[in-house]
Amino acid sequence: MKSKQKLKIGIIGLGVGEQHIGGYHKHPACEVVALCDFSEEKQTMAREKYPQMRVTAHADDLLSDPAINVISIASYDNYHYEQIVQAIDNDKHLFVEKPLCLHEKEAKHIHALLCQKPHLKLSSNLILRKSPRFIDLKQRIEARSMGKVFYVEGDYNYGRIHKILEGWRGQLDFYSIVYGGGIHMIDLLQWLTEDQITEVSAYGTNIATQETNFQYNDTVVSILQFKSGMIGKMTANFSCTYPHFHKLAIYGTNATFENGWPHANWYHSRDPNVPPLSIQTEYPGTHKGDLIYSFIQSILSGLPAEVTKEEIFTALAVCFAIEKATSQAGSVVVEYLN
Ligand SMILES: NC(=O)c1ccc[n+]([C@@H]2O[C@H](COP(=O)([O-])OP(=O)(O)OC[C@H]3O[C@@H](n4cnc5c(N)ncnc54)[C@H](O)[C@@H]3O)[C@@H](O)[C@H]2O)c1
Prior knowledge:
Layout: E1 7-12, H1 18-25, E2 30-36, H2 40-49, E3 54-56, H3 59-63, E4 70-73, H4 77-89, E5 93-96, H5 104-116, E6 122-124, H6 132-142, E7 149-157, H7 162-165, H8 177-193, E8 197-205, E9 219-226, E10 231-237, E11 245-252, E12 256-258, E13 264-267, E14 277-279, H9 292-301, H10 309-326, E15 332-333
Parallel strand pairs: 1-2, 1-4, 2-3, 4-5, 5-6, 7-10
Antiparallel strand pairs: 7-11, 8-9, 8-15, 9-10, 11-12, 12-13, 13-14
Helix pairs in contact: 4-5, 6-8, 8-10
Bound molecules: nicotinamide-adenine-dinucleotide.
Nicotinamide-adenine-dinucleotide binds next to helix 4.
């Protein structure tokens, strides 16, 4: 494909956003033409490493550039909403880091704007779906190798407490570990089981960080009711003394899957003398740009991306309900936008 026909990409935020570059360049129809970061250090790095790309401190330079077709938003969580709105106003397709936004009213507004422009594609980096181990698990569930799934557990063990104590996350006016990490597990559980969470209850604690400047819950546990009658539990644990890990257990009527390091276990008997089978598919085995190819394909073909707009709003709606449930007694019904 000739350069002038290619989709022109701009990326805002060069932390995880830098890894988007490789994702776009795996697709022959893409050319990353502009990078934005308000850190001078990052700009210097970007000019040296990517001399063919324009580098700017101002997101507006990309968002208002008519030559740019696609924007990746990998800025701090609190900037996503305003950048998304501007991008939609200027007719750009969007790949947005999770969480899409931080407030229900913002999600409703983005949803309404996208409904007015159905030609625009939105996807998000709910990357656990690309882990070979979880793809393998999904295939087993689909093949009904586990029988009927009746209970699921996902613990997002963050293992990087310094990021909430020292970085931007703890300095925002509002930060949620459920939106920042738990969302990966919520999406994974719904994607694996093709079920939808309808109601949640939740508790949060900040015992581990109460002597610090981090002013939000550092650990949240939620109980989940699914549409099918299945039940679940999801924990976002940002304070754990534990390496970054997705602790996942899926209980079916015929078998149980339990993620482990380095291998997962597949229990197929209640007899304590029968050892579980070892599942050795790669984990996590993901690159942060892995979902971008299908996002670009969705722009070119009109077919759904691996992570669709509807699925992004669905995961976010569950997270909003969990966050709400931590501050009130009793359960909260998930309010879906789709
Ligand atoms: N999908 C995933 O697995 C995953 C992993 C990590 C982070 N994230 C998300 O990516 C986003 C960025 O997180 P990170 O870990 O890369 O942070 P980071 O601090 O490592 O990098 C963010 C970069 O963006 C720049 N930046 C922030 N806001 C900006 C703005 N408005 N304009 C220009 N530059 C801006 C900062 O200067 C910084 O260099 C967050 O929303 C986070 O939740 C997603």
